[in-house]
Amino acid sequence: MKLLRKRFGFSLAAALLITTNINADTASDIAELREEIAKLKEQTQILTDETSNLQTGFNYTTVDSKESHSGLGAAASKVYYSKSPLSIGGYGEMYYAHTSNEGSANSDIIDVYRFVPYIGYKFTDNIILNAELEFEHGGGGDNKAGDGYVIVEFMYLDFLFNENINLRVGNILMPMGLINEKHEPTLFRTVQRPNTEKYLIPSTWHESGIMAYGNIVDNLSYKIGAFSALDLEAGLGEKEKWLRESRIGSYRNQNRLGLAVVARVDYTGINGLLLGASTYIDSDLSMIDVHFDYNKDAFRAYGVLTQSERSNTPIGEPKSAKGGYLNVGYDLLTFTSSQDKMPLFVQYESTSAQDEIEGGSSVASIDTTTVGINYFPHEQVVLKADYAMQRQDGVSDKNIASLSMGFIF
Hints:
Layout: H1 2-56, E1 86-101, E2 107-122, E3 127-136, E4 149-160, E5 166-173, H2 196-200, E6 206-217, E7 220-228, E8 259-267, E9 273-281, E10 285-296, E11 299-310, E12 318-331, E13 343-357, E14 366-378, E15 381-392, E16 395-408
Antiparallel strand pairs: 1-2, 1-16, 2-3, 3-4, 4-5, 5-6, 6-7, 7-8, 8-9, 9-10, 10-11, 11-12, 12-13, 13-14, 14-15, 15-16
């Protein structure tokens, strides 16, 4: 009996050991099966993507609104992280505005302001073409407004070496201010770009040349380049628009081709803050700006200050210009459960394109206060409304009520 109990104990222990081993083997097999299923799913997705590529010619890449290569907008940066050698993106915006003029008739305008395709191509991971074509005011041709046109707004080759030094050659966005490089409509709050970055830093400002860029150290980037200079003779007599009308851009220039040097530094070492400065110098003009953009949760504030000084100025022409703006906003939908965004903002701006005129006179600054709201039903789509109150020399000049829609893709 004692022997029987001992044998029974040994049998029970053996059975338990076998069961434990079976369970262990089963758990191991299940883990292996799960791993194999995950691999099969990944391979199936790859095959699906490759089949799609064969059918469409390239793999579509969606815009990542948080991406920015070398300070460009999200859609303009698309080619740098595209899954395919060929990348197509872009943006568009149209608006309606009602202007109440003091002492003159009111006016209304509706404008298909811009439709802009980006076309990029990766020759290799280190040699990249990026180009922007712009159709303004409905495009060129015999349109009723008569001011539509089509233009190459940039076209360059990037030679990427490392995080410290890269080379860009071609027709390039000038690295000045905040909006000139990041001019997509989802990136600024107002319906119209601030006058500071329209008339004083004449966005969209692009010139032909060569530029080096990269990081000096972590969180401190630089850009420096040599470009075709502004043609100030082309801006003679333009008064408030003298800087804007001096751009050469991508047009052929047969009269005067000067040389300009542009340099920029940006610091991003504080969470949510971009802080920087840039300068433009040629034989006739020096321009400098300081800029910042601070994003923290639902709050955003951004702004620019700029000043230009001209030498060899003809009598009666603007000799210097200065101005700036500050935009402060808060996303109202953070108080709700909605994933959409609805920032309410106020912007104050003062511009003096004729701060000093050769011969001793000057023209008072134009001061504009704008209040408005944006609604983002999607991070790539924005609807805007604002009301701008413009004053000059303390006297009411005009008020502008505007509505717009914009998108990037």
